[in-house]
Specification:
alpha/beta; 3 domains; globular; seven-stranded mixed beta sheet; binds pyridoxal-5'-phosphate
């Protein structure tokens, strides 16, 4: 190998190990902001060359104080996973291989990995046998891809070919979704030219109200319609009632898409599968591999029941492309050229096996329950949601006190928890999404939380 490449890769390896071994004890939030890091990186574009090894050293050293310890077992912010070792290492190899994973005949190893991972994902998640899987950048693009397939299919049934005719003059597509949908649904509907969704009432845990969905569908004229269901509410972790919602939506001829960015993996656990029961009757499903499955960024998965609907939305023609009769991966995703994103997915599934994925899901949910118990034991604290999965939302009195607790937790740095608002109240939110979170991580975080609450209460007096 080129000496320069070997030295740069060795530097990357060393810096990566230093970073990973710092996670146990470093503060979870970053210590510097982007402007400070940019100063050390240097803002001037150099006129001449720099040795790649020196470039790596500069990146690692300048960047270090500005890194958030997202792979730490004590990062509970937003809904983000860590990186399982097998997935992380496979991701490095993916970059070294540098396969363009769009065309079957050009990159057979990448295709084999993708084919096997596709079949495993469908099997593990209990989805209809033979459904194609697109390996996209994340949940947002998985929602986009599933709903693009749905848009084409429901318009096609109304005698309208969106691929050639566009949307202007079309019968249009109604999209119904629960009030507590993830905002990425609104975003992808903008990409798709469908405007804002119609919001359907939800219950106290954020679950779609079936009577309200049914009434909204009744009001329609039976034209092209899609219903977007949620498997895993970011605040409560709750799941829409899949069986009933899919039944009523299908009775009205609607396409049903499930946004299961972190919750679809409940299907991989016999203990948690009942939460999502009935989901397999939908038409398309979106999930993230970079959340519950703990693959590095960026990796999302879209699964569509009807391969023709997916291909109609995502395929393209180019005379220069060497097509394969078995179908090419670029026909299932919005991109043409892309990295072999399936390799880290294959690696983590190969490392964990079916039982290991079930154990991972069960462990995340068990840690969330431990948080709920620990928080409920703090005087004046209240857990607002039914902790059915991996999410916990808590208040510590007045909004101002809860907001102060969130701020103090970040200053303390033991863990990262996020502030949010849910049902009109300030909340502190804990999302347990990292494969490596131990009971000790939970205990350390709860100890920091007890201190933050005591201090915030004292300051409010
Ligand atoms: C995270 C999330 C998304 C968006 O996923 P990205 O990977 O961030 O694009 C969509 N829906 C839900 C429910 C999520 O939790």
């Amino acid at each position: 190998m080129h000496d320069e490449a070997a030295k740069a890769l060795e530097a990357a390896h060393q810096h990566a190990l230093t970073w990973l071994s710092s996670l146990q004890d470093r503060p979870v939030p970053p210590r510097e902001d982007a402007a400070q890091v940019a100063e050390r990186l240097g803002r001037e574009l150099p006129e001449g060359p720099t040795d790649p090894r020196d470039v790596l050293d500069l990146l690692a050293e300048a960047g270090e104080p500005g890194l958030a310890a997202i792979p730490s077992g004590r990062f509970f912010g937003f809904v983000m996973g860590g990186s399982h070792p097998a997935a992380l290492a496979a991701d490095w190899l993916t970059s070294a291989w540098d396969q363009n994973a769009g065309l079957r005949t050009v990159t057979p190893a990448a295709m084999a990995v993708e084919d096997v991972a596709e079949a495993w994902v469908v099997d593990l998640l209990g989805l209809p046998h033979g459904s194609p899987v697109g390996f996209v950048t994340g949940g947002t693009m998985a929602n986009f891809t599933g709903l693009a397939a749905g848009r084409g299919a429901v318009l096609d049934r109304a005698g309208w070919d969106v691929a050639t005719q566009g949307l202007a003059g079309s019968p249009g597509v109604r999209v119904l979704v629960g009030q507590e949908r993830h905002d990425s649904v609104d975003l992808v509907l903008r990409y798709l030219g469908l405007g804002a969704p119609e919001l359907v009432a939800v219950d106290d845990q954020g679950r779609l109200d079936i009577a309200a969905l049914s009434a909204a569908l009744e009001e329609g004229d039976g034209g092209p319609t899609m219903v977007v269901l949620q498997a895993g509410n970011i605040h409560s972790g709750a799941f829409d009632p899949m069986t009933e919602a899919i039944e009523v939506a299908h009775a009205h001829g609607a396409w049903v898409h499930v946004d299961g960015a972190f919750g679809l993996f409940a299907a991989a656990s016999p203990a948690y599968r009942p939460l999502i029961a009935g989901y397999e009757a939908a038409d398309s499903w979106a999930t993230d591999a970079h959340k519950t499955l703990n693959v590095p960024y960026d990796c999302g998965l879209v699964v569509v029941r009807d391969p023709a609907a997916l291909r109609a939305a995502m395929s393209m023609h180019g005379d220069y492309l060497i097509r394969d009769a078995a179908g090419d991966p670029f026909e299932k995703v919005p991109e043409l050229s892309r990295r072999n994103r399936a390799a880290p997915v294959w690696a983590v599934l190969r490392a964990l096996g079916r039982q290991g994925v079930a154990d991972l899901v069960d462990r995340l949910a068990a840690r969330a329950r431990a948080f709920a118990e620990g928080i409920a034991a703090i005087e004046g604290a209240e857990v607002l949601n039914d902790v059915v999965f991996t999410q916990v939302c808590a208040t510590f009195g007045e909004d101002a006190v809860t907001e102060d607790v969130v701020r103090r937790m970040l200053v303390d740095g033991t863990a990262w928890t996020t502030g949010s608002r849910w049902h009109g109240r300030a909340v502190l939110r804990v999302s347990v999404s990292n494969w490596s979170t131990t009971e000790e991580d939970v205990a350390r975080t709860l100890a920091a939380l007890r201190t933050a609450v005591a201090e915030a209460r004292a300051a409010a007096r």
